[in-house]
Amino acid sequence: MDPPHLPARRGSLQGWGGGRSMQQEFPGSGRRSGGRGDRADPAGEHSLPLHPLLRLCLPWLRVPLLTGSAPQDPPELGGRRGAMGAVSVLGWLLLLQAVPGAAGARPCSPKYFGRDAMVCVCNATYCDTLDPVVLPALGTYVKYESSKAGKRLERSEGSFQRSLHAPGLLLTLNVSTMYQHVKGFGGSLSDAAALNILGLSRPAQDNLLRSYFSESGIEYNLIRLPMACSDFSVRPYSYDDVPHDYELKHFRLAEEDLKMKIPLLHRASAMSRRPLSLYASPWTSPAWMKSNGDVRGKGMLKGQAGDKYHKTWANYFIKFLDEYAKHNVTFWAVTAQNEPLAALLTPPQFPTIAFTAAQQRDFVVHDLGPALARSPHHTQLIILDDQRIHLPHWAKVVLGNATAAHYVAGMGVHWYLDGIIPASCSLEATHKLFPDHFLLYTEACSGFITLRFSVSLGCWERGDRYSHSILTVLNHFVAGWTDWNLALDLEGGPNWVKNYVDSPVIVDSSKDVFYKQPMFYHMGHFSKFIPEGSRRVGLHSSRRCLICQLEHVAIVRPDGALVLVVLNRSTGLFGFGWDVPFGIRDPAVGFIETVAPANSIQTYLWRQQCLQLGRIPNRRCGAQTCFADDKLLQPAPPSLAAGVGLRHGEHGPTAGSPMSCPLPDSPFLLRQTPSPPTTHNQKAGPAARCPAPIRDVARGFSGSSPGACHQCPSEPRCSRGAMGPGCAGVLSWLLLVQAVLQAAGGRPCNAKDFGHGSLVCACSATYCDTLDPVVLPAPGTYVKYESSKAGKRLERSEGSFQHNAETPDFHLTLDTAQRYQKVKGFGGSVTDSAAINIQSLSKDAQNHLLRSYFSEEGIEYNLVRVPMASTDFSVRLYTYADAEGDFELKHFNLTEEDTRMKIPILRAAQAVAKRPLSLYASPWTSPVWMKTNGAMTGRGTLKGSPGDKYHQAWAKYFIRFLDEYAKHNLTFWAVTAGNEPTAGEIVFYPFQCLGFSPEHQRDFIAQDLGPALANSSHRDVRLIILDDQRVMLPYWAQVVLKDPVAASYISGIGIHWYLDFLAPIDLTLSITHHLFPDYFLLSTEASTGSYFWEPRVVLGGWDRGSKYSHSILTNLNNYVTGWTDWNLALDLEGGPNWSKNYVDSPVIVDSSKDVFYKQPMFYHLGHFSKFIPEGSQRVGLAVSKKCRRCDLEHSAFLRPDGAVVLVVLNRSPVDVSFGISDPRVGFIEAMAPSDSIQTFLWKQPA
């Protein structure tokens, strides 16, 4: 049965095409700023847009007879520069434009909010429109284009060609390969959206609704509707707030439904040619059903599945559907819960109700599924409705139950944490496991992670991100994409939790206008041209030009037309993009030769002679193979057999690349045919690495897939240098011989392969690999140290500069005249866990481990972070002053973890280090008697307020710590004011924490900690603020450092890496540096394996080291002065620790064998720590490149001894040739092998 929809009602488009006069201009005036002259709008945002004919004629008005002077810029509407002759012509053309019923779409009325930041302005009398979609004649196509340069769904036409000059990029359509059906595209009618729409005059409301839903707009067909309040309401409410009303006798829709959302739904339905599919999502149950007794905050349903609370909550869904049905509004689907695992990321004022996957499964089985099945509503059920990081786990838990799977139709996904996990490892993996259940993106918005610019009017990049997301997920089996609020105000609201974000439509009710943003038009490139029932088809991309990188998807519509969407997000040096010429090939029609302009999106539409979904033809149509019941009568030509759809590099691996995450339990990994073996030097491309896919793509692959999270299990272990069992014996013998012959000099790695793509170096009491001390090369020569996935570990080689060289495709030119920040250094943390692991080894093995980190024969760490008392990486919870009310800290004592573990290790490290070590300390929590919650974990802050006895005692705690360590001859370079102060603001936070807001930290420093340090014998100890995620910058720094008293005590700002994906580095670190250049930035914590879906320890995981180097380079290039890893050493499980919060480490200890393994992370860190000593300074490095694909990461430094260091990282699976130019020395011709890191070192003339 077809899903139920809103009643199909058609209405006339009032105000469109009838009775308009020439005087119907928008009220008001004003000028834009920051735009280019050819887009000037002197009449302001409300001037009538120019008709295309008028635009065509404007150049003619430049002749002298009209102006009495030499040719000038075109006269502009409303201007006074033109003579009467020009005015007459303009008036005549404007009259033509205003003729009622004039054919054609209305153009955008542009307004600029800065250079290239353009919106289209609409009001009660004017709004830009689009023509209805009409399929072009056979052999022709239509193209719709939007661009940062100002186009908005601009239509043009063209014809297919019989041949094509070889383009740099060719996209070849393959309709024989069919993927998922499309459900559609749309947005959410939240309370905030409804308030903003209804805040306009009635004609302006109609223009807004028509823009979204009518043929003259972008034709949304999906609408998400919150059940009762959401965070985008102006008050918290539910539909039944009478306690213990298990029969729901008092269930009532709210005014928000009756007076706002339901009327708007009817009006949207009346304007829409397509049937609308509505789906509803609950944010929270009534307070009396929740464990915390409040619709806000974290709470779960009382009781358990099958009891009266869960039955009542299931019936609440049915009552909602009943009540809306009384208003002639029916729903296609409901989601079981909005963001059931919003968990720790959700502020306490948000309306939420928590479910685990198992709880949702049981609720569906025992309550919600049967309730829907018994009801008269043919409404489908969607699970999850949360971030894709929970897939495929959530799906396996819920849909692995046959009863639950019977009731469930699909899975809802939100976009907010997409950057954490590739689409191939979440969406595609889930589709392959459960191909009968659709995937639907149910929420997305921009502006949610910034502390500024929730609304960014005219921002092209936000629309760009929408299209990137849509293309990525469509190419990974998602059936549709739903935006969040349909309309918001200039602040990004209103809402009662002040959770402001951006929207495709922004309303200024004070002027009775609304602004259609780039996001709106990006959405339209999909929603208008890809109707429900369309189906994704194969598209093969072949490139001859490395710079020709586009994102794309191909769709066949139910009417048989083809749709191709192409996005060009290219960005080069200085933020400028480039045009990309490319070709399109449809074997049934011909070729299109075209160009994707920089920062643009295009939608192509054309017809094939007999292609129509569901049609059963009786003939072949020339070169076209026709369909019968959606299946081919003829196989695809061999040249297209490899066309398996689209891949996007940002969110998933490309064919032939190393796996990005393991999925050992996925059934589609078990049915692969062996791939041909590769030799050590052979580059394993897609054909060599994995077999061609079996093309049952609509139901899930039975072979390998593009971007799939796996490697071919039959691939030889020794390919590309991996040390497999077949190589181990010979390798060990050779290493033994080499070790004997090289008694002098660095000892080589004792390689061990654990089957994770690269190797570790094993060390024991009797042997460990070493490095020679750094010796500067002779003038005119250089040394290079290289590590690679193929097996090199800081391998040293030498070379000479050349006096001239051919300019390579990628060229780095040193500029030592440009000087940036000075480097503090690199290091790791001596946690309790690290100390336990180090001391679990024999004395000789311990010595090898510490020498590996700190000595000249190791990687020469100079930074060591020391926790003050316990952390999550301790084996118990403790502080140094647990005596209740001990404000004088008379009972302050170090613990055995300090005196027997950390202090001895720190002194041993100092003994082997040539460089002085800079220690800095961080507290996780105060003693519990100082905290508001009386516990080390969970949400809690210091009692009282700054300046009182609790805050004074906590400041003294720092001083006592420094005093006690000084008694052991250990002094500290710095302390941080507190580890992750925002963690202490999170309810149920599972680890030790102490909450501070930036204001609280500012006042604590100004009144307590700063004076305590200044008045102590440790006045030279530096004070570091934040020590938390960089997403808090620059806001945290602005609050604290703009107070002159607090700022006088502070030296720097500490950052952690865990949420870097949420915070663009230029909007956090660079801005903070420029605002506060006198305060250093230091990365104080990082580790891999911390996300719950990742394996904790991956022995030999090259990608984890590569992530470290990427982070370090990115940070160094944005004014960070140093980088500190987390635990120096952990065990095979990633611990020990009391919280079971296991992670990975550069050194993994197996105490049962008295060995430790130095991982790729260790050597990646060494490429920086050994060669860039404290006092080095980052210098300029100009980049020129001719090829798109030759993309390297790099940073250059001038050491205190005058030598130059250049670090180059290649994270791609291909070798990259490049050149290095030092104008004072000469040229180096170099090669960065695939998956490698190199450090170059040379001297400059004195």
Radius of gyration from CA coordinates: 32 Å
Parts with pLDDT < 50 across at least 5 consecutive residues: 1-103, 614-744
The major β-sheet equals: 9 strands, mixed
Helix % is 10-25%
Q: From the helix content, strand content and strand pairing, which structural class follows?
A: alpha/beta
Overall mean pLDDT score?
Answer: 82
The fraction of residues in strands falls at: 15-25%
Annotation, overall tally of beta strands: 46
Shape descriptor: globular
**Major beta sheet, strand line-up:** 4-3-22-19-18-17-5-20-21
Number of helices, where a helix is a run of at least 4 consecutive DSSP H or I residues: 25
Termini separation: 83 Å
Describe the structure.
This protein is an alpha/beta fold and 1246 residues long. Helices cover 23% and strands 22% of the residues. The chain contains 25 helices and 46 strands. The strands form seven sheets. Strands 4-3-22-19-18-17-5-20-21 form a nine-stranded mixed sheet. The protein has a nine-stranded mixed sheet with strand order 28-27-46-43-42-41-29-44-45. β42 and β43 form a beta hairpin.
List keywords for this structure.
single chain, disordered N terminus, alpha/beta, 46 strands, 25 helices, globular, 22% strand, 9-stranded mixed sheet, 1246 residues
